[in-house]
């Protein structure tokens, strides 16, 4: 199931959550042709924002992705506050919530490397192409290295190159 990014962004934006779209969804927003199955976001860790993120996602019944059904999992501020990074399955698809990412840090660290966009009627922040390339390089996964060449070509075109 491909994640309903419109529903996710509208829910988070509607609650006033502070978050930055990163990962494959950010790459697609910058012009990548690669398909992504989930949506990765880095969220601010302050208590008021934890409340907003929990409220935004609660209607979609988040549950740890890959965990067997029936585990005692409660989606609330305490759970989100006690954890950092969550890979979730929801009624609208797979969502990865990151308190921080390799090569980028947390929300406050990434904020200067992001810009505001409106997509699907929702206002959100998008990681810059330059920083996206840097964090993909830092993550060092084979799928990230495959994406870097395409992202660098997009960046070169944006800068007026070939």
Can I get a quick summary?
With 162 residues, the chain is an alpha+beta fold. Helices cover 41% and strands 25% of the residues.
As an assembly, this protein is single chain
Report the major sheet: 7 strands, mixed
Question: What is the N-to-C succession of helices and strands?
Answer: HEHEHEHEEEEHEEHH
What portion of residues is helical? Answer: 40-55%
How many E strands?
Answer: 9
**Low-confidence parts:** none
What overall geometry do the principal axes of the alpha carbons give? Answer: globular
Q: Specify the number of helices.
A: 7
Query: Whole-number average pLDDT?
Result: 94
Distance between the termini: 36 Å
Question: What is the structural class?
Answer: alpha+beta
Order of strands, main sheet, comes to: 3-4-5-2-1-9-8
Beta content: 15-25%
Radius of gyration: 16 Å
Write the layout of secondary structure elements.
Elements: H1 5-14, E1 19-22, H2 23-29, E2 38-43, H3 47-57, E3 63-64, H4 77-82, E4 85-90, E5 93-98, E6 100-101, E7 105-106, H5 107-110, E8 114-119, E9 122-127, H6 129-139, H7 142-158
Parallel strand pairs: 1-9, 2-5
Antiparallel strand pairs: 1-2, 3-4, 4-5, 6-7, 8-9
Helix pairs in contact: 1-3, 6-7
Description:
The chain has 162 residues and is of the alpha+beta class. It has helices at 5-14, 23-29, 47-57, 77-82, 107-110, 129-139, 142-158, and strands at 19-22, 38-43, 63-64, 85-90, 93-98, 100-101, 105-106, 114-119, 122-127. It is built from 7 helices and 9 strands; from the N terminus they run αβαβαβαββββαββαα. Helix 1 (5-14) packs across helix 3 (47-57) and helix 6 packs antiparallel against helix 7. The longest helix is centred in the C-terminal third of the chain and has 17 residues, at 142-158.
